[in-house]
Description:
The complex is a heterodimer.
Chain A: E1 4-7, E2 10-13, E3 19-25, E4 31-38, E5 42-49, E6 56-57, E7 64-67, E8 75-78, E9 87-96, E10 102-106, E11 110-114
Parallel strand pairs in A: 2-11
Antiparallel strand pairs in A: 1-3, 3-8, 4-5, 4-9, 5-6, 7-8, 9-10, 9-11
Chain B: E1 3-7, E2 10-14, E3 19-26, E4 32-38, E5 44-50, E6 56-58, E7 64-68, E8 73-78, E9 87-94, E10 101-102, E11 106-111
Parallel strand pairs in B: 2-11
Antiparallel strand pairs in B: 1-3, 3-8, 4-5, 4-9, 6-7, 7-8, 9-10, 9-11
Amino acid sequence: NAGVTQTPKFQVLKTGQSMTLQCAQDMNHNSMYWYRQDPGMGLRLIYYSASEGTTDKGEVPNGYNVSRLNKREFSLRLESAAPSQTSVYFCASNHRRKGGYEKLFFGSGTQLSVL
Amino acid sequence: AQSVTQLGSHVSVSEGALVLLRCNYSSSVPPYLFWYVQYPNQGLQLLLKYTTGATLVKGINGFEAEFKKSETSFHLTKPSAHMSDAAEYFCAVRPYNNDMRFGAGTRLTVKP
């Protein structure tokens, strides 16, 4: 049971380069999320997807785009990387059951440095 | 949009002492509320979740949180701290859509 798989684990970019962070979950969850984690700022929501084919902006969407092409996969794209996007990025999917049980499952994170 | 504020970026307690981590949310309608924990070099794990009903929610590892609507608070407590509780704790809020927001986190240090 792989859970949430995020790739790559580490990446170094030069300013202006583009890249896509991949995320896939095998738990049949509807909702998926992208967060960035910076010291002293907690996790900030970049984008989320409530279901296949839908995406919504979170707190800090500028400079990012996302794609939810199918239920499993939710990718995050940086079109023109900036040093301010140096961060640790986490993908998550939300498991909800009847009765109110709910839990986010997180990927292992991507450490991105933009020089 | 919903927001959540965690008071105190660092909390230090002695082993065996009470742990109190504070969380306040902004909302006109009580949302779903969560506490997550992140141990060093690990991902986040769910401690507990408030939906509706009982205002005192029990979670894993002896933690519990009390929902107080009048104070828009959801503080996390544990009666007796253990060394293994040292970690970063995050309060999170989700209204009735899927927009899940986290607070800035509180780093808990437990002194022997």
